[in-house]
């Protein structure tokens, strides 16, 4: 009787908890089921075909994959060092009184809705970017990265806005990771006569896997970011190295074309793009968790044991 | 110049660069807040909250239907996300280390990382396509799915913070695990969990992507769960990409409401957690 009631509690909560696992599995299943038409018709060529023409029924996702990866990689190149700098400043250098407010402010960047970033992007950032593009010196324009007319809307605006949006995610994880570095690491460096930067570098080296994880987490965020990017990237399915060119991302094409997809093949092609986005973000996030977990393992496993062991025995 | 002076200079430069990184992040924040406030404040009046959208060319009007729509969407979403999230969080904390608990933690992290637009596609497949109808219900479902992982994480962390001695006290009095959790552990963690839920609601209220093809949009006032419904975020999006000045002004006002909501909740949550921390350390 007593045993039965204990089991009832575990079973009751367990069923609900299992539901969460089911939801994740259902997302993968449903996306696959709803994209069978395009999976069957195009197969692998879906990923390497450049042409996206709903009217003639030809669907190739490469321009979107390119746009998503290109914008995210560039955004991380920009945001990574800045986020790391913020993490270092807040965990190692900042005077104690300023730490809390500054942390709060940098994390506020993550709280602003994507649509507000987009609105600001359209009306404030894009005109600024256009001015910068117009002022680009001639020799730079010869490079493939700055080729094309300076319209403002395009890859450059998208990268800038993405960079701002991922900074808080990367910096807050990097800060946690740096916090987990034992004080003795820094003390040892100072004892050897290290300067502040050399001591920090010792801590950074110790935390390197976790920091990679933090950057990857930001990358995962950038890959899936939708509204703000949709509003400033120009939505043109064309592969280009140029930062000035309007391009397209996987999330943006879903946002723009999903509700107007008239025939089944069109819809299935779009859902297949969603499926790929799901798989990529899943892998990137899993990789980042693994890196962060490996970094934190000793500390968390100690904590887990002390909290969980008595309950486990009681049950 | 000798080697040591060079090292000291390099160290100083790096320290300054790190400070500069903070400034670089705060510039866009300040700019966004500045533009949202200065451009939104002029269109934000009582009519904004009580009137329906005005047709093109007519100045004024409001977003009453969108505000009500957003409230409906997040409340209905919370209706099923809160129980699922809290119970799963309790399981993950109370049975930490078991296989299912690890799976739940992993699933919550995964779900948290799934792009919101993909959640929208998923809900479209299960709740819109079968009935061939965009609906407020589908929108709520999408927002609910996005809330679940946040609530799980908050609940799990706060339940773990409840001192072991409280549980042991209840168990020693003969309570079952379930009863101990319900009457002792959860009440102790409740203030924090509620704070977390409020914060999750505020964040989710700012989501646009999962609503685009689930709740869709509605020009009219609707409270029906089976019909498309307007939301603040989708309405701001439509206004922002429109070519009309009046609509742009409305978009900025909508953005100001959204940012105000999130800011208010974040600040309140910060004070609440601070009080909690003080209580925790004070005992």
What is the averaged pLDDT score of chain B? 88
Order of helices and strands of chain A: HHHEEHHHHHHHHHHH
- Number of helix segments of chain A? 14
Number of strands of chain B: 0
The CATH topology of the domain at 64-231 in chain B is MetI-like fold
Q: Rg of chain A, please?
A: 24 Å
Low-confidence stretches of chain A are 299-315
The amount of helix of chain B comes to over 70%
Topology, please?
The complex is a heterodimer of chains A (315) and B (283).
Chain A: H1 2-33, H2 36-42, H3 45-48, E1 52-53, E2 58-59, H4 62-93, H5 96-111, H6 114-134, H7 138-141, H8 155-179, H9 183-191, H10 196-206, H11 208-224, H12 227-232, H13 250-257, H14 264-314
Helix pairs in contact in A: 2-14, 4-8, 4-11, 4-13, 5-8, 6-8, 8-11, 9-10, 11-14, 13-14
Chain B: H1 3-40, H2 46-50, H3 64-94, H4 99-113, H5 116-128, H6 136-161, H7 164-172, H8 177-205, H9 232-240, H10 245-282
Helix pairs in contact in B: 1-10, 3-4, 3-6, 3-8, 4-6, 5-6, 6-8, 7-8, 8-10, 9-10
Characteristics:
heterodimer, A: 315 residues, mainly alpha, MetI-like fold, 14 helices, 1% strand, globular, B: 283 residues
Walk me through what this model shows:
The complex is a heterodimer of chains A (315) and B (283). Chain A is mainly alpha-helical and 315 residues long. Chain A has a domain at 69-261 and 287-310: MetI-like fold. Chain A contains 14 helices and two strands. In chain A, helix 4 packs across helix 11, helix 4 (62-93) crosses helix 13 and helix 13 packs across helix 14 (264-314). The longest helix of chain A is centred in the last third of the chain and has 51 residues, at 264-314. Mean pLDDT of chain A is 86; it is low at 299-315. In chain B, helix 4 packs across helix 6 (136-161) and helix 7 runs antiparallel to helix 8 (177-205). Chain B has a domain at 64-231: MetI-like (MetI-like fold, Orthogonal Bundle), CATH 1.10.3720. Chain B is mainly alpha-helical. The longest helix of chain B has 38 residues, at 3-40.
